[in-house]
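User: For my dataset I need records formatted as: sequence, then structure tokens, nothing else. Please produce one.
Assistant:
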Amino acid sequence: MGPPGLSAPEETQDDAYWRTAGDRIQTLLDASATGGPVARERAERLAGEITDLYGAALHRIIRLTGTTHSALTEEFAADDLIASLLLVHGLHPHDMTRRIEDALDKVRPYLGSHGGDVTLLGVTDTPGGAEVRLQFAGSCKTCPSSAVTLELAVEDAIHAAAPEVTAIEVVPAESAPTTGVIPAQSLLSRVHRDSHHAAHAQAVWHPVPELADLGDGEVGGFRVSDATVLACRVRDDVFAYRDRCGNCGGSLAGAALHRRMASPDPVLRCPRCHAHFDVVRAGACIDGTDSATIHLEPMPVLVRDGVLSIAAGVS
């Protein structure tokens, strides 16, 4: 039975509906408290019994498929919705380190668009939960202000895959680049130390399922929270930027992607000043050496709860 009010829903819409079931269950439990503590206790026991019942069934499914159909078990683990339920019941077939590595693989294309990468240095179990140590490589490439969005993307992916993680430490690289670009690892360490809580309190992820409708080479405008966002698809990846040209400051409405003969990746041309920006590499302007500090303002795009989402409100 699918979500009410949706006719032939897309798989992503269906995933988003069921991944938010926990919030609806909690709302119903809270509402039961109006009947007094006895009613609340009975409602919680009912929810617990149902959860345990489905948990027992999932345990049998994993036990049966794991011995005879290992490929099917891997498909279960790769499905975000099923994997989340397996995690709840402690039945996920992969250990925490494997889940974290897989999560980092999913965000590496986004980090690569900012000229960076991330390495998992280790996972440590502590009485308060698991602690993860990461090291970033590369640099933010002409847009150091996007360091907070890189951190958000990595932390969001890790916590979704391994909810038992309670702390993430960014370890600075031993040697910094000699260029004038600020190293990403330094920025992220500073974010962690000085403004971690403030930045995360201000960043809100907004589902934008319409992003999935963009075809390769298409550009579209979207309203996300109080911001106008320009998004485009390049092959399998979606990139989003705030609707403001880094050169002239005007709107990018009407902008289109143009192919370059020397590169397989397209560039976005401002319809007003005709400046060209590399949308795959953090929106850097490519119009000569004098444009090294000119860039678009990137906004992180990730699949959250099965739906393409954009983080807005990052300062």
